[in-house]
Fold this protein.
Amino acid sequence: MKSSLKISETVVRRLPIYLRYLNELSMRNVQTVSSQELGNRLDLNPAQIRKDLAYFGEFGKKGIGYDVSYLIEKIRQILKLDQTINVALIGAGNLGVALCNYNMYQKDNMKIQAVFDNHPDKIGQTINHLTVLPLSQMHEKIRAENIRVGIITVPASEAQNVADQLVEAGIEGILNFAPTIIKVPEHIRVHYADFTADLLSLAYYLE
Ligand SMILES: NC(=O)c1ccc[n+]([C@@H]2O[C@H](COP(=O)([O-])OP(=O)(O)OC[C@H]3O[C@@H](n4cnc5c(N)ncnc54)[C@H](O)[C@@H]3O)[C@@H](O)[C@H]2O)c1
C-alpha cells in the first residue's frame, strides 16, 4: 500500500460500504467477488470500484475477482480498523442509548467503551454493560481507556461545551449528532450525522 497517499474523502467514505457487503459475503462463505457483482449490489460503477481498490494495491485477479477475506483484511488495514478503536458517547438519552445498544464492535472494531451524562437520574444507570458516568470523570476515563473518538448525542445547546471537553481530554475525532456546527482545533476530525435532514429532504422527492 502506498502509505503516503492522500486518499480522497469520497473514496474513504465508500470503503466502509464495501467492507459491510464483503463481511456479509464472508458470513455466507463466499470466497471471491467480482467488481461487477459488487457494483450491482452496491449500485456503484464497477470501474469506479476497481479504481478505488487499485488505489491501495492490486487486490483483484482477472477473471476470478477479489478474494473476499483478503479484501476485508486490506480495507480494515486501510481504515485502520485492524486495531480496536475505543469510543466515548456523551448524552445517554433516546439516541445515545439506542447507539450504545447497537453492537458495532463485533464486526467493525469500534467500541463504545464509556458513556457520560450530566443528569443525576442517568448517572449510574447501565446501558449494554456500561455504567453511565458523570462528566467529571470524562477526562480521566478517556485517557485511561485510550479513547480516541467521541460521539455527541446531547442537545444542540450543549454540543460545543461537550466538544470542548472532549478535545481537552485528548480525543482525535468526533461524530456529532446534535444539529449544530461545532468548532474544534484543526487536528480534530469532525463528522456530522444527520438522518433527520436526510428524511426531511426526502419529502421534496415525493409526488
Ligand atoms: N442527527 C440526527 O438525525 C438526530 C436524530 C435525533 C436526535 N438528534 C440529536 O441528538 C441529540 C440527542 O437527542 P435525544 O432525543 O437523544 O435527546 P435526549 O434529551 O433524550 O438526550 C439528551 C441527553 O443528553 C444529556 N445531556 C444534556 N446536556 C449534557 C451535557 N452538557 N453533558 C452530558 N450530557 C448532557 C441529557 O441528560 C440527556 O440524557 C439532540 O441534539 C438531537 O437533536 C439528532
User: Anything to note?
Assistant: The longest strand covers residues 110-117. Residues 12 and 79 are 8 Å apart (CA to CA).
